[in-house]
């Protein structure tokens, strides 16, 4: 399936996610920790935004805001034209820890969102052996996990678990995909393999993606845009588009243009870290 | 020889050795059967008196099962309530611990006062004895569920009920079965306790009247029956456990086989 160019570059982009002066403060009076300074951020539909920054800078807080798991202490978070309330959204999420349920097979794990999310859940009892099962098997084949549907999570390697995790995040065709360092715990080669898988999935389905990572190479390989955040309390200090053509290859990451982008972002992050220690 | 088979043989050998030692000690020390009867005497008594004992065994068995079933229902409901809500956990725990600390012997006369002597106090005592371990285990299992597991479902818009049915309860199953094995034996203790205090039927009642007649072998026969029923119930739950929560038992050398 070749992506339709007009679809990749729509003339008028709609905002998929909009943070306006959204900030988060944890704790009660006296021991307040500001996790995220009031932040403005607009993410267009179909964009692949990579969020990088030092650890503890509030990257994950932005994800939790967008998913509705955390409420903003101030400002507003608009997702799909509406103020966030977790119920109404169609979001897919994947964390660094694959969090597959150990008592379910891979097939049943991947099928879980169809059991929960409207409108799929209404037909779940009727379709779980037919249409939904085929859908899960097709998704598993997409990420190279054909033949593992009836395995339990503990029988799979870390990389395979993360592939299944991506399947679960995408099985209900979410328009918004939130990834919190999903490749962070993998070895270098598995990680690069999964970047390729992730890119294929994105080109095929074109969801809006927010990827939190501390790997600049990963951000440059996958992102259409990279936002750099400062150390806590977090704020966005750099926002650059990534224009390398797709599909991108690992070889591309050794090109001078890519290295230059990498180098520039690296310096931004290092100076942001020094602001804190100084 | 497989490990599982060897383990069973060892368990059987230990039980046999226990009874043989008992028998030999009684003979060697010339212990009167009014103090401690020999196992062979007890088994002979069981054999001869079985037609008379049988209705009492059934009585004890069904009152225990009803008390146990009610205890499981009450235990799961209370455990689910206090395991899913921090507030309920903190407020209800002192009361529950207070209740479970009361010696159940002291409660039986109250039940008898309310419902008269018979099966009802036995059922209620069994319930009172066995629900607490279930509450504690269900509540602990739910309260220790990894938030990341729930976050995945929450971001999909799952309701509290969805979370409980899809994450909380399945994850709690190993805890639940561990508590069932304790609760089942507790339920027997409760029934027999109530039967010894106020009933005219059941193994507890048999033992009580036998001991007032100095029929010590019959008292011991009652003990044997109770031990056997307890082990039987334990085995039943072990088998069910192996089927339901096999996923939690990956170390094959320890899993029930």
From TrEMBL, chain A:
Transmembrane domains' residue ranges: none
Presence of keyword Translocase: no
Domain ABC transporter: 19-256
Protein name according to UniProt: ABC transporter ATP-binding protein
Keywords: ATP-binding, Nucleotide-binding, Transport
The species this protein was found in: Paracoccus hibiscisoli
UniProt GO molecular function: ATP binding; ATP hydrolysis activity
UniProt family annotation: Belongs to the ABC transporter superfamily.
InterPro entries: AAA+_ATPase (IPR003593), ABC_transporter-like_ATP-bd (IPR003439), ABC_transporter-like_CS (IPR017871), ABC_transporter_ATP-bind (IPR050166), P-loop_NTPase (IPR027417)
TrEMBL record, chain B:
Membrane topology annotation: Multi-pass membrane protein
Location of the ABC transmembrane type-1 domain: 57-237
SUPFAM superfamilies: MetI-like (SSF161098)
Predominant subcellular localization, coarse grouping: membrane
UniProt entry keywords in alphabetical sequence: Cell membrane, Membrane, Transmembrane, Transmembrane helix, Transport
Stored InterPro entries: MetI-like, MetI-like_sf
Cellular component aspect of the GO annotation: plasma membrane
Pfam families: BPD_transp_1
Coiled coil start-end: none
Transmembrane segments: 60-83, 95-116, 122-144, 175-198, 218-240
Keyword Transmembrane helix: yes
Compartmental location: Cell membrane
Family classification: Belongs to the binding-protein-dependent transport system permease family.
PANTHER family: ABC TRANSPORTER PERMEASE PROTEIN HI_0355-RELATED, ALKANE SULFONATE ABC TRANSPORTER-RELATED, MEMBRANE SUBUNIT
Protein name, per record: ABC transporter permease
Organism: Paracoccus hibiscisoli
